[in-house]
Every structure is written in structure tokens, then in C-alpha cells.
Write a sequence for this structure.
């Protein structure tokens, strides 16, 4: 049973430790839940900033509903980073509900999000609890840009692009992110068109032309992202398409080629053989946990173009250090939930639950993001 009101599940992972950084920064006590307390404590001692000043406890739990329910009981908020969520996420969602906790996570895997919405959204609403996937840099920055665009009257169609830069880009992602990325190869990726989710063709790609860059940025649907799922049931939005690119076009072209290869060579293999392929890809991409991000290297641009019959607007969010920003977003949400301040319960996006202006302000005050809006 948790002694503190915030639980970090996946405490030994790269993102989990960054969430703990921000909870410590905000003076929020937490319970770290992990399968191996000794190993996690050693890793935290090496990587969690100001750990010596933290108020926290460590609990061991197996990844099953019964064990996690017992570990989460007594808390109010679960920050879950254990992925790939399409494989492991629903167990923690069910456990948090049974323990009476709000559930936050960091993924935009569409099949997982749809399962959370359909299986648990109403149950969380009835319990007065929030379940909010994809509260992380990769999805929330674009969501903030989209919400800024929607402030322009008449906008009902959105196109968003998330463009990242880091050391060799994909090679700089965490182990959990790499696993989730390659899981996307075997799942449907959709965009929203006239209030219906429509699958992207496996060959889908975009050349994003933006004034932030000299050259077009080669981008792909990246699983479709979280936005079409959240906007599917939003009366303001009829259409939404999202893409993700890297400053290094060759890297994303390689990922795009891998998507084609999966379709032709791996798609029809038995699940066990597909698992082996995914495991090999993850291990070759992220053999060790990457170093802490540097503000001089990891930089991001998230753009939302909003259109209506005559309305046209471009909202841009410039940012740095996406994993560190993810930890900040999780802490910002936990603060609101601990104070009982959420505009939504049930299945809801972070911007809907806490307000895009609040999340943007939290990031701006800490030097992690700035936003501009231009009428077109």
C-alpha cells in the first residue's frame, strides 16, 4: 500500500526517473513502484537529481492487476511509464481504477488509447477519476499547438507536425520509447477525416514545409499519434492529421523504409517471430539507457495549422529536452489532481483536463517551451 499520494510506476526507466526529478523539484512526496527495488534504488542514486532531499518510498510489485492494485492503494495519482503500452498498459489502468487513483501515462499508441477509452473511460468517469494517456512531449506539445489554433473562431480542421532533433535522433530515445516505436509497425495508424478514423496507407509520408527550416522535413504518421483519437469526439474538430519528423531526414526515411519492410517481410509471420524481430530492432537502436538530455542539442518544433471555411491560423510551440519536458508535464498534472482541480474525469486529454494554457504556462515558466500564433 502506498504511503504517498503520487505513485511513479516504472521507476527504473528513463522517463520514470525524470518524473521523479520534477516531483522532487515541486516538493511532492512519491512512491516508486518497481519489480526490483534494489536495482531501481541503484539507478535512482545515479540519475535522479536531488534524490537526497526527496521524501519517497520504494515498493516492489509484479505486473498484474492484483499486485499493482495493492501497491497503488492509498495514493491519488499513478504516473505510469511501463510500455509498450499496447502490451502492458491496460493492467495498470485497471489496477489504478480498482485502487481509486487517477491514471496518467506517456504514450500515444492509438490501439491502446482506444482500448482505454472503450473499456475504462466510463468506469473512470463513474468513479470521478481521470484516465489520461499521452501526457508527454511527443503528443502534448502538438496538442497545445492544436488548442491554440482552435482559439481562432471557425477552425474545424487540423494538421500537426512534431519535429525533433537530438544526437542521431532515434539513437537518442529511451529503451521504452524504442520498444513502443517498433510496436507501431504492427498496428493500424489512423487520421481523423469528417469525424471518422481512417487508416493511413502503409506508404504514407509527408514533406513538411515550415519557416523554421530551410529544407522540407520528411515525416511519417508515427502510429497516427494521440490527437486523432482525442479529437474524434470533440465537436469543434472535423478532421485531424498528425505526423512526426526528425531534423535528420535520412533517419526518418530509414524508419519509413522499415515500415515497408515490415509490410512485405514480417507482417504475416507468427507473433513469436514478430516479437523476436521487434526485440532485435529495439536492442540495436537503444543498447543502453541514453544520457540526460542537453538543452544545446535536443530541440523541438511542434506546429498546428488550423483551417475553417475562411479561418486560417498557424500555432507553433518551440521546445527543448523532450524527455525532461515529459517529466514536467506529469508533475504539472499531478499538482492539479492533488488539488482536486481537473475539468474532466473519465477518458480525457491533458489539455482538456487541465487546460492547455496551464500546461503551456508551466512549461514556459521553466524555460522548456514558448508559443507563437500567426493568423494566415
Amino acid at each position: 500500500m502506498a504511503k504517498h499520494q503520487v505513485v511513479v510506476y516504472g521507476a527504473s526507466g528513463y522517463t520514470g526517473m525524470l518524473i521523479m526529478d520534477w516531483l522532487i523539484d515541486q516538493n511532492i512526496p512519491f512512491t516508486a513502484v518497481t519489480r526490483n527495488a534494489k536495482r531501481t534504488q541503484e539507478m535512482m542514486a545515479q540519475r535522479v537529481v536531488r534524490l537526497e532531499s526527496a521524501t519517497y518510498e520504494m515498493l516492489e510489485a509484479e505486473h498484474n492487476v492484483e499486485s499493482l492494485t495493492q501497491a497503488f492503494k492509498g495514493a491519488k495519482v499513478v504516473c505510469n511509464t511501463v510500455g509498450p503500452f499496447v502490451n502492458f498498459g491496460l493492467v495498470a489502468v485497471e489496477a489504478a481504477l480498482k485502487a481509486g487513483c487517477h491514471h496518467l501515462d506517456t504514450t500515444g499508441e492509438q490501439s491502446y488509447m482506444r482500448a482505454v477509452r472503450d473499456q475504462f473511460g466510463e468506469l473512470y468517469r463513474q468513479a470521478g477519476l481521470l484516465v489520461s494517456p499521452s501526457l508527454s512531449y511527443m503528443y502534448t506539445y502538438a496538442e497545445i499547438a492544436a488548442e491554440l489554433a482552435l482559439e481562432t473562431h471557425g477552425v474545424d480542421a487540423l494538421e500537426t507536425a512534431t519535429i525533433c532533433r537530438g544526437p542521431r535522433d532515434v539513437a537518442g530515445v529511451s529503451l521504452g520509447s524504442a520498444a513502443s516505436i517498433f510496436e507501431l509497425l504492427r498496428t493500424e495508424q489512423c487520421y481523423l477525416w469528417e469525424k471518422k478514423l481512417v487508416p493511413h496507407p502503409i506508404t504514407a509520408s509527408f514533406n513538411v514545409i515550415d519557416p523554421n527550416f530551410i529544407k522540407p522535413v520528411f515525416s511519417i504518421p508515427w502510429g497516427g499519434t494521440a490527437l486523432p483519437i482525442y479529437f474524434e469526439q470533440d465537436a469543434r474538430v472535423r478532421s485531424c492529421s498528425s505526423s512526426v519528423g526528425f531534423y535528420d531526414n535520412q533517419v526518418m526515411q530509414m524508419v519509413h523504409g522499415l515500415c515497408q519492410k515490415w509490410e512485405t517481410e514480417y507482417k504475416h509471420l507468427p507473433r513469436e517471430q514478430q516479437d523476436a524481430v521487434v526485440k532485435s530492432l529495439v536492442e540495436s537502436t537503444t543498447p543502453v539507457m541514453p544520457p540526460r538530455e542537453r538543452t544545446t542539442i535536443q530541440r523541438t518544433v511542434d506546429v498546428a495549422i488550423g483551417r475553417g471555411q475562411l479561418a486560417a491560423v498557424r500555432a507553433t510551440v518551440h521546445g527543448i529536452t523532450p524527455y525532461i519536458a515529459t517529466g514536467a508535464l506529469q508533475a504539472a498534472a499531478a499538482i492539479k489532481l492533488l488539488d482536486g482541480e481537473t475539468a474532466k474525469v473519465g477518458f480525457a486529454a491533458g489539455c482538456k483536463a487541465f487546460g492547455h494554457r496551464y500546461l503551456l504556462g508551466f512549461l514556459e515558466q521553466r524555460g522548456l517551451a514558448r508559443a507563437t500564433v500567426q493568423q494566415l
User: Anything to note?
Assistant: The two ends are 54 Å apart (CA to CA).
